[in-house]
Amino acid sequence: MATFEYSATTVSDRLMKGVIEAGSVQEATELLEQMRLKVSSLEKARPERPKTPIARTEFLLFNQQLASLTKAGIPLERGLRELSKDVASRPMRKLIDSVVTDLESGMSIERAFERRKQYFPPLYGRILKAGVETGRLSEMLTSLNRHLEISNQTRRIVFEATAYPAVVFVMGFIIITFVLVFLVPQFRDVLEEMVEGRQLPALTQLVFALPENVKYLWLVLGCAVVVLVGINAFLRLFPAGRRFRESIILNAPIFGALFHSSILSKMSEAMAMTVAAGCDMPTCLRLSADATGSDKMVKESDTIARQIEQGAGILEAGQLCRVMPRFFLYSIQLGTQRNELQDSLRSLSDMYTQQVRCTQVRLQVVLLPVMIIFVGLFIMLCVLAMFLPMISVVQSLSGG
């Protein structure tokens, strides 16, 4: 069952907004019509991501240990029980024990993990179920660890790449502020006395005026940051806003390519996992898109999935896609035709992860020299402004 956000009007023309659970958009529309509501908009809601008491690194270690135990032929329930004894984290130990209790009472593995989906990565219960049914649980868990490590690595690279410009920008402003506040004022009295009442050059007057206004520059910068953070928080509240925010990021120079490659990397790896779990292509697209955290990818994947369910090919279905490039869809189609879909998706994931790394390196290579040149030019102008009055005095003395 999926959750949909809707906007509708009642029989008395009153506007209503809310959420409804249904298996598809069509089913949700029918349920709302049965409630005598006239639907004006209906969109799949982005699932909330509750905070988890399990650290990401701790889960990776747990999953790898479970893979090793199942490879040794130990039954899943026994393996989980043994792992809970060795886990240092008390919340993690209680969580594992509760899962084992459900399994021993006869509950299916998928249902047991579905009840605790806020604590585990997306698809975890489905992956375990597929591994148990196919006898490839250890291989599936190892593949899952690879997926999580790639996702974490991509997330870290994107964070570093976006944090780096902010740090460089702030450092540049601090250097400029130090020059204006502490160095420039020391020359003012000396130069005014030197020119003996004559007017200072325009550049010198401009530089002397800057220290008095530097606090206003910082105030404007601070307000701009607060406004941008507020707009970002507001846009994240509803699906259309999140898609608009993504569009802005995707169209940004360098950062757009970085963000786009990171989405495709996570999408490829998640699809490889769902294919290994035995999902059909529409289900694979929908589940994998949810794992990327991108609303635009979720919308495009759902559109492609619905067209595939109606008999269209993936290339035909993805003609109007913007987040999924043509090459991405073509590789999936080719992998399907050659019965090498999982390998093709892993290759795509590696390729897009490498693109993220290359974009990050290019950003760092370009940004630092630009900042150095900018700060250097500013300091050069300040030095020139200090020397211009001296030059004018020397020229007047030579002429006299």
Question: Layout of SSEs?
Answer:
Blueprint: E1 2-9, E2 15-22, H1 25-34, E3 38-44, H2 56-71, H3 76-86, H4 90-104, H5 109-114, H6 124-134, H7 137-195, H8 202-235, H9 239-250, H10 255-276, H11 281-292, H12 295-309, H13 314-317, H14 326-337, H15 341-399
Antiparallel strand pairs: 1-2, 1-3
Helix pairs in contact: 2-3, 2-7, 3-4, 6-7, 7-8, 7-10, 7-15, 8-15, 10-11, 10-15, 11-12, 14-15
| Strand order, sheet with most strands | 2-1-3
Mind describing the biggest β-sheet?
3 strands, antiparallel
Question: How much helix is in the residues?
Answer: over 70%
The beta-strand count equals 3
How many alpha or pi helices?
15
Radius of gyration: 30 Å
Listing every helix as H and every strand as E from the N terminus to the C terminus, the arrangement reads: EEHEHHHHHHHHHHHHHH
Structural class, from secondary structure content? mainly alpha
Uncertain stretches: 48-53
Number of domains: 3
**DSSP strand (E) fraction?**
5-15%
Globular, elongated, flat, extended or rod-shaped: what is the shape? Answer: elongated
Mean pLDDT: 78
Gap from first CA to last CA: 92 Å
How would you sum up this structure in a few lines?
The protein is built from 15 helices and three strands. The chain has helices at residues 25-34, 56-71, 76-86, 90-104, 109-114, 124-134, 137-195, 202-235, 239-250, 255-276, 281-292, 295-309, 314-317, 326-337, 341-399; strands at residues 2-9, 15-22, 38-44.
